[in-house]
């Protein structure tokens, strides 16, 4: 993956925690980061991402890794036990922000029971949306909780809903970028090598330089494209492939309404022949258009514009992408991250059943609707590892994707299972949602101190601290098994969905139905 976001902290103060041993160089590096982007130091009262790592004064011997894995699918009987009751109460405490609105079920909700998104004028009257680093940690946490209560809320029946506004988020990120540039905060972010914010700031600078040097960034739309999908206007995304524009078309049935489409403009790579260019685009289009799932982007058309460049037309997701959501929020609440993670695993399981591997899963390639449905996009690196008439999967080769999300076997094995690569990326994505940062720069032994620390700590009784601070045992067990450096032991997407933890996750209605 790329950079890692940070999120609001809603947990009560923990007590009697067990201090970790003296940190190594890599642990010290992690702890030296700003509290907004890094985990807090190991000490009494450990609090991370809305969960406290509470341990008894006399810790019992921790289970071995094999016992953890074997316990993932062993569902306990919880009839009439105080432990089950405490567990449910604990989970409720985690996922309900202090000021999140608990309203009536959707059909009966009123304006008073549901938190209305703040108006543009009200946001101007309040303090700047950019977190004030001069504030105390308590003030920052309160500000993050306020933001979380506007992103999602929990209904009385236990279900939840999301309300995501990409325009407001873009305004906030633009202000954050201007603040970093004007106030000279580049040094601060370079001192946080694993934060998503540092990577995002570099991307923004590079994009502005490219846009200034390339007068072709504003291109006319072909008549055919305009007739079918409307005029392409504002840019809503950029990447190595080209840019994504938003096309506006008046609804023929209701002239007062407007239909929106995302138009991905593919640029021919330097030195790439026209034959390879067309093959690359048609391959991506064929894969993405063949997949029909609530959590995979709907691809509508492949069409040429006036310049002869191919454009892929897709459904538009008004909630933006997961990457910018994490950036603007800091880190996601437990309920949000779990809901998005289960949607992601459902989509990956479906792709693998269809014989397709994505090979470039990361928050940037996960779009979100305004109501909280995840949509996997960008199948430029996707490949078919099994044809419809075949039963056995073909191994694949070659390094592709974004460094923090690439599985370790891609660096050492000549051939590997692309399904295991996708599952590994899902584990890194979940940790990015929960912590707002990357676990490592690159999962290559001997090349990254953070990854070396993970390999060392996962074998110890104390475990790997960024995972150990996740409160729920079942969650920790699954994440350890997803991030197993041995791909033959790694859980499949189907096994993740069958685990006790993921089975208990409640997905919002939008995530189930894809709206």
UniProtKB/TrEMBL annotation:
ATP binds at residue 264. Residues 230-502 form the Protein kinase domain. It comes from the Eukaryota. It catalyses: L-seryl-[protein] + ATP = O-phospho-L-seryl-[protein] + ADP + H(+); L-threonyl-[protein] + ATP = O-phospho-L-threonyl-[protein] + ADP + H(+). GO terms for molecular function: kinase activity. Residues 74-89, 122-154 have a biased composition (Basic and acidic residues). Residues 1-29, 52-154 are annotated as: Disordered. Its EC number is 2.7.11.1. Pfam families: Pkinase. Residues 1-27 have a biased composition (Low complexity). PANTHER family: PROTEIN KINASE DOMAIN-CONTAINING PROTEIN (PTHR24343:SF558), SERINE/THREONINE KINASE (PTHR24343). This is non-specific serine/threonine protein kinase.
């Amino acid at each position: 993956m790329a950079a890692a976001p940070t999120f609001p902290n809603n947990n009560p103060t923990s007590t009697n925690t067990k201090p970790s041993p003296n940190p190594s160089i890599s642990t010290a590096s992690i702890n030296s980061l700003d509290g907004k982007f890094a985990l807090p130091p190991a000490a009494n009262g450990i609090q991370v991402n809305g969960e406290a790592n509470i341990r008894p004064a006399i810790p019992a011997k921790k289970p071995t890794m094999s016992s953890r894995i074997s316990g993932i699918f062993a569902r306990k009987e919880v009839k009439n036990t105080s432990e089950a009751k405490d567990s449910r109460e604990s989970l409720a405490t985690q996922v309900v922000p202090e000021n999140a609105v608990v309203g009536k079920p959707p059909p009966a909700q009123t304006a008073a029971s549901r938190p209305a998104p703040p108006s543009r004028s009200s946001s101007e009257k309040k303090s700047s949306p950019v977190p004030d680093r001069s504030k105390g940690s308590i003030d920052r946490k309160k500000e993050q909780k306020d933001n979380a209560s506007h992103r999602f809320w929990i209904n009385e029946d236990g279900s939840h809903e999301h309300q995501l506004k990409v325009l407001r988020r873009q305004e906030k990120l633009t202000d954050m970028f201007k603040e970093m540039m004007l106030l000279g905060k580049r040094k601060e972010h370079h001192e946080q090598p694993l934060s998503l914010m540092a990577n995002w700031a570099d991307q923004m600078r590079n994009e502005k330089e490219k846009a200034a040097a390339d007068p072709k960034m504003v291109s006319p739309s072909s008549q055919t494209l305009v007739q079918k999908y409307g005029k392409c206007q504002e840019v809503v995304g950029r990447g190595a492939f080209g840019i994504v524009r938003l096309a506006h078309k008046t609804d023929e049935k209701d002239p007062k309404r407007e239909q929106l489409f995302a138009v991905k403009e593919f640029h021919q790579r330097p030195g790439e022949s026209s034959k390879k260019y067309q093959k690359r685009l048609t391959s991506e289009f064929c894969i993405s258009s063949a997949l029909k799932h609530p959590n995979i982007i709907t691809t509508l058309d492949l069409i040429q514009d006036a310049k002869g460049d191919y454009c892929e037309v897709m459904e538009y997701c008004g909630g933006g992408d997961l990457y910018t959501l994490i950036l603007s929020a800091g880190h996601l609440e437990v309920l949000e991250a779990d809901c998005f993670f289960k949607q992601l695993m459902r989509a990956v399981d479906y792709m693998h059943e269809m014989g397709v591997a994505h090979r470039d899963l990361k928050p940037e390639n996960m779009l979100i609707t305004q109501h909280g449905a995840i949509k996997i996009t960008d199948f430029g690196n996707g490949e078919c590892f099994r044809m419809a008439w075949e039963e056995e999967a073909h191994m694949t080769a070659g390094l592709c994707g974004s460094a923090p999300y690439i599985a370790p076997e891609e660096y050492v094995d000549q051939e590997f299972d692309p399904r295991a690569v996708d599952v590994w990326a899902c584990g890194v994505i979940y940790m990015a949602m929960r912590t707002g940062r990357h676990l490592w720069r690159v999962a290559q032994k001997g090349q990254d101190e953070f990854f070396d620390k993970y390999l060392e700590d996962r074998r110890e009784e104390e475990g790997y601290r960024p995972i150990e601070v996740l409160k729920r045992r079942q969650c920790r067990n699954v994440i350890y098994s997803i991030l197993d450096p041995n791909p033959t032991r790694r859980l499949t997407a189907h096994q993740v969905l069958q685990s006790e933890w993921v089975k208990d996750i409640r997905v919002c209605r939008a995530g189930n139905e894809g709206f």
